[in-house]
Amino acid sequence: MRVVITGSIALDHLMTFPGRFAEHLIADHADEVSLSFLADGLTVRRGGTGANIALGLARLGHRPVLAGAAGPDFADYRADLENEGVDNAFVRISAEQYTARFVCTTDAVGNQIGTFYPGAMSEAREVYLRPVAERLGGVDLVLIAPDDPDAMLRHTEECRRDGHPFAADPSQQLARMDGPDIRQLVEGARYLFTNAYERVLLCQKTGWSEQEVLARVGQWITTRGRDGVSIDGSEGPRIDVPAVRTEDEVDPTGVGDGFRAGFVSGIAWGLRPERAAEIGCALATLVLGVAGPQGYELEPDRFTAMLTSAYGADSADEIGPLLRAAVREAGAVR
């Protein structure tokens, strides 16, 4: 299946401050803040919604195309993605701006001071899907993940114009975009991804009821944290898929991206949505168990055992052979 992922590519610079920010703030001088904190730890992690989802698909044995924008500092990141199986031929490299990044300092009690620099992400609107489709000989699914809002709108319109099936994943950009633009992102999507809060926000900002949303999309997939996932369609009952339980909850960053990668993988293998969601939930749990969105390892036998434990032998028997064959074939190609 020819899958294209559009979305952000980013770097996170995460620091820790051993004290409390509040101890250094003067109440009567809130309009004159000039502070410098000496951090005692720094972690640099790779991320971005588009890159996270593409990497998850690659680790499941696929060869996704990542379409987005990054800066000249992307070279090492690009090489590692390529080594994992992500096709980066359609990542635009900015001549003027660095790769998007989030710089955040967390104090001893969990308060955070952060800054997001979009950088090269603003040039994602200059990435076009038609050349991608021409090189691949067609596109079976485009997943439009959070990115520069203008890029998301352009890629959605390209999909509608050229007949590419697409999945809408507006996620965190729902807070920024207005109702008419959100309606443009959703209209005609084969799959719509939100979490439970975003589900409510989407209806509020578009002015649509849930039934009106469902009349415009194929399936609406809603992630609900520890409560698993629900899948709604305009016809038929809701499908509920429980989460894969774990005691190792290390870092929730990128968990939603992991779910999306797993779900799309199942669709690419021709599985029904319930099975696709089981793959997504299992991959999300792997992501949750490590620091950062890309630090997990995917070992087919362990992954299949997770499916058996959570969903029973039928799930593992259906998914396991597909996963092993895909990973084996991808390894042979690389």
UniProtKB/TrEMBL annotation:
Entry-linked CDD domains: ribokinase_group_A
Which stretch is the leader sequence? Answer: none
Q: Which InterPro entries match?
A: Carboh/pur_kinase_PfkB_CS, PfkB_Carbo_kinase, PfkB_dom, Ribokinase-like
In this chain the Carbohydrate kinase PfkB domain maps to 32-294
Name listed for the protein in its UniProt record: Kinase
Q: Which residues cross the membrane?
A: none
One Pfam family it belongs to: PfkB
Domain of life from the UniProt record: Bacteria
Q: Which UniProt keywords are given for this protein, alphabetically ordered?
A: Kinase, Transferase
GO molecular-function term, one example from the UniProt record: kinase activity
In the record, the note on similarity to other proteins reads: Belongs to the carbohydrate kinase PfkB family.
Q: Which residues form a coiled coil?
A: none
